From TrEMBL:
<dbReference type="GO" id="GO:0016705">
    <property type="term" value="F:oxidoreductase activity, acting on paired donors, with incorporation or reduction of molecular oxygen"/>
</dbReference>
<keyword id="KW-0560">Oxidoreductase</keyword>
<dbReference type="InterPro" id="IPR036396">
    <property type="entry name" value="Cyt_P450_sf"/>
</dbReference>
<feature type="binding site" description="axial binding residue">
    <location>
        <position position="433"/>
    </location>
    <ligand>
        <name>heme</name>
    </ligand>
</feature>
<keyword id="KW-0349">Heme</keyword>
<dbReference type="InterPro" id="IPR001128">
    <property type="entry name" value="Cyt_P450"/>
</dbReference>
<dbReference type="GO" id="GO:0020037">
    <property type="term" value="F:heme binding"/>
</dbReference>
<protein>
    <submittedName>
        <fullName>Cytochrome P450</fullName>
    </submittedName>
</protein>
<keyword id="KW-0732">Signal</keyword>
<keyword id="KW-0472">Membrane</keyword>
<dbReference type="GO" id="GO:0016020">
    <property type="term" value="C:membrane"/>
</dbReference>
<comment type="pathway">
    <text>Secondary metabolite biosynthesis.</text>
</comment>
<keyword id="KW-1133">Transmembrane helix</keyword>
<dbReference type="GO" id="GO:0005506">
    <property type="term" value="F:iron ion binding"/>
</dbReference>
<keyword id="KW-0479">Metal-binding</keyword>
<feature type="signal peptide">
    <location>
        <begin position="1"/>
        <end position="20"/>
    </location>
</feature>
<comment type="similarity">
    <text>Belongs to the cytochrome P450 family.</text>
</comment>
Amino acid sequence: MLNTVFVALAILFTLQVFKALHLRSRLPPGPSGLPILGNLLQLPTSRTWLTFDKWSKQYGPIFYLNIAGQNTIVLGTHKAAADLLDRRANIYSDRPDFVVLNLLTGGMHWAWTHADDLWKRQRRGAHEALSAQTAKEYFAYQETESIIMVDQLLTDPKNFLAHFQRVSTSLSLSIIYGWAPVLDSDHPTIQQIDHFNRHVLVSAVPGSFWVEFEYFKWMKYLPKWMCSWRQYAEKRYSRDSVMLEGLSANVQKQIDAGEETTSVAGKLLQNTGSLFEAAWNSTSIYAAGSETTAAQLAWFIQAMILYPEAQRLAQEELDRVVGPYRLPNFDDHEHLPFIRATVKEILRWRAAAPLGVPHRLNQDDHYEGYFLPKDTICFVNIWSLNHDSELYGHDAEHFNPGRFLDADGKLKSSIEDTRDEGHFSYGFGKRICVGRHVANNSLFIHIAYLLWAFNIVAEVDSNGKPELPDPLQCIEGLTIRPVPFHCNITPRSKDVAEVITQAKVERIGEGS
Ligand code: HEM
């Protein structure tokens, strides 16, 4: 009897091994891993995109990882990403299950939810409030915030990173909730929203909690008293949701009082009919947009220090088109192709999210002879695509806005499948960044102001040697920003302060 059980178990085991080997032979190639843990221990703890870039060169445009039981693919070329995430968007637009993140947000932060009906409704509403056309309604906010940013840099240039954080947060609050500019980043509401945001972003980083791993998903069903992660997330949700919903409730009061609101929240409340959904749509937009712009501005300053020729050419254009006696504005947009190319190049050179946000395949699929099982998680290595020398030439590692311009200095037509952006930093398919028009406009006006007003150069050490930052060193999370660095930001002429002060008085009023 024992013998029969033993033989049956041995046959079952052998069949399972054959099944696993057969499945593995149909999956894309990739580094071989350990039993059970798969490739988990091979994942780098920092700059994952560089290791993935190396693996793409070794294994090809699509490679496979088993992350503790989770089927995962990484796409390393523009063709593979566009073929799957754009051309098969119907089945590649889902998101993985973020257990803790969904508890933190009550499942309402739609940038992270499954591609379900709620996501469709929220995305449609966001698209209307942030489309290329509607984004023009926010120009005034963006110009005002740029004035405040350069004014603060005049008096306190060393804290440039803090000013970028402030401008990004304050601008988000103006556009989304119609707030007046917030000059102090210690404002309690800002602190609270940013706190919420940080918790969300941490919980989205793969491996932050055991329950996120495939083999440990059963932990979801443990009673609450056994799960510190559940207690933590539910407690935060009950606290944060009151504050976050309150922000939109205030906008609703203004609408009820007959005060016109052109803010994103105002539009969503008028179009959605549900305060709860509109409030969480606004929160999701705020959370997705506020970190990224500040990070891109910090990378921009590094680029200006490391590539002074690009700075010189941009300033030449500003001097020619705008001149020294007024600040740039959105009417100059058409006439400042080098500044627009600089925006594209900063997003290409250092995308705020080098691995984007993961998508999930929601049915079995085949590609290039490989089998891709349902529920596979798909990463695009945006870094690899943006640094592809076949698309961008031998100097793809370098910052060079000129690559986007033709011989007459006009913007070239864009690279295929980049939706006129010229880079891949806004993601793919039905999940492409819905805030990209607002982001492009903010970067355009902030960069135009910064280069119109200031020379940005490296600090010099006691031996007279410039202290150049290392552009591969970064602080990592889901988004990356440079490790804090020093630089000198000085007005380009004696007229700069006067022009800024005058603009500030006109825009914000006396005594501002
Ligand atoms: C320079 C700045 C920005 C960069 C580099 C960026 C990048 C991205 C990326 C890579 C994604 C994921 C796309 C995908 O899954 O394939 C995304 C999604 C998203 N972004 Fe942005 N973003 C930026 C600014 C903004 C701004 C300013 C807003 C809001 C005003 C915003 C709102 C969103 C939202 C709501 C999503 C989720 C879309 C969805 O899941 O359907 N982003 N962004």
